[in-house]
Amino acid sequence: MSPGARYSIVVPTVGRPSLAVLLNSLVESAQTASVELPTIYLVDDRRDAAAGLNLADIADVPVKLLRTGGRGPAAARNAGWRECDTEWVVFLDDDVVVSRTWMSDVADDLSDAPDVMGGVQGRIDVPLPADRRPNDWERGTAGLSSARWITADMAYRLSVLRRLGGFDEQFPRAFREDADLALRVLDLGYLLSQGERRTTHPVRPAGWWASAAQQRGNADDVLMRRLHGRGWRRRADASLGRRPQHLFATSALLVTVLASLERRRRLAAITGVAWAASSAEFAWLRIKPGPRDLAEVARMASTSLVIPPLASSHWVAGIHRHRRVRRGPRRPAAVLLDRDGTIVIDVPYNGDPERVSPMPGARLALDRLRNAGIPIAVVSNQSGIARGLITAEQVDAVNARIEELLGPFDGWFVCPHSKDAGCWCRKPAPGLVNQAAARLGVDVRNCVVIGDIGSDTGAAAAAGARGILVPTATTLPAEVAAATVPAEVAAATVYAGTLNEAVDLLLAVTRT
């Protein structure tokens, strides 16, 4: 395993017997790959864990046991990753089984991930019966094989989890909390991909009313819309399902009951027929794929009667429960960056492309802004041109080299004048900032200027934009003191320790 791809494993559990199968499969995979098994943070999320977990059948597993007292899978995963000190955290469910090559495959998945890759998903296989058609519950579980970002097998960078605060514990069950985190990772400007490792998710036994109990997730759909807006389903590849039909059937049932109580027999008959037809159509859609044995038909018929009102009531309850939800900050229309000392190491009056060196973490920070769809441009004072120390052509050559190293920018805006010229463009005058905003077609008041000295943030303030100071050794203490205010304060200038932290201020949605 590459040292750069070190990872820990977090497994939330409620004490199911399948846990032992998972742990044994991890041991077998490590033996197959001839590698040391990484630390496994096993988080017991049962409300009453006094009996403890039965790990007697598990040999040579480096488990660290944590307890969360039944606060839900989001809280359990958070408790696990907060104990980790590795570059990556791999989340597994307690009812999956990893392949024999999983240990070597996950090392390859994570070692090959570029810095801007925030998470890598495993490939999920759901075995279905070979001797008959799958039933409704089995078909539903099979959908996990094409689901995006599910934590049955999902790895995230520890640094990204820390930036975002991990899983949102407003999600009380194993539903949508994984999609919520994934969308926030994407919002943070990171990428997500699917790796090559494979994990099997068996279909676990389910009771008669299991599909009815799942309807609680409709309330979580409301929370997703509150947090991520109307387009969350498209981004998360999550279908609306039959909510419109369920609302219709539930409304018809309610009107039928009320009309019957008021002895409005004709209205009750019409809406009763509508409810019965909708319920029958829903039941047939679930029965038709098979298997059409008596027990399955009876289960589908009975649950198809209760699912529409349950789904609708949970959805309405979610609307009430999640009336006020804190969403993320407004994104800037564009980010304008100083050049020397901000994105590249400051070499005074540099005209040699070979002397260009990026600031640590600059490529990652810029890629995150690009991935978030935010235009980026450079605003730079280059008084060496006026002083005859460098030429405009040399500045262009240096800028071209910067693009080779750090990727493309949406514009370069340079002031060639000396400090005494009294021009409109030299920072801290607002000219370059206004020019960049106009060229990019955005309101300057919605722009952010990032730089390492007071003239950068001064130009932002003069133009009506927001400034973020990322100090270096050349930054004056007074400039740092002036910018050191909480990020929540609507100030003209705030402080960030690194360029990546500045991007965090612009993009991150941290929830507790």
Automatic annotation (TrEMBL):
Coiled-coil residue windows: none
Glycosyltransferase 2-like domain span: 8-135
Cited Pfam families: Glycos_transf_2, Hydrolase_like
Protein keywords: Carbohydrate metabolism, Cytoplasm, Hydrolase, Metal-binding
SUPFAM superfamilies per UniProt: HAD-like (SSF56784), Nucleotide-diphospho-sugar transferases (SSF53448)
CDD domains xref list: HAD_HisB-N
A GO MF label: hydrolase activity
Compartments reported by the entry: Cytoplasm
InterPro entries in UniProt: Glyco_trans_2-like, HAD-like_sf, HAD-SF_hydro_IIIA, HAD_sf, Heptose_bisP_phosphatase, Histidinol-phos, Nucleotide-diphossugar_trans
Main location: cytoplasm
Presence of keyword Metal-binding: yes
Similarity remark: Belongs to the GmhB family.
PANTHER family xref list: D-GLYCERO-BETA-D-MANNO-HEPTOSE-1,7-BISPHOSPHATE 7-PHOSPHATASE
NCBIfam families (UniProt xref): HAD-SF-IIIA, Histidinol-ppas
Protein name listed in UniProt: D,D-heptose 1,7-bisphosphate phosphatase
Source organism of the structure: Jatrophihabitans lederbergiae
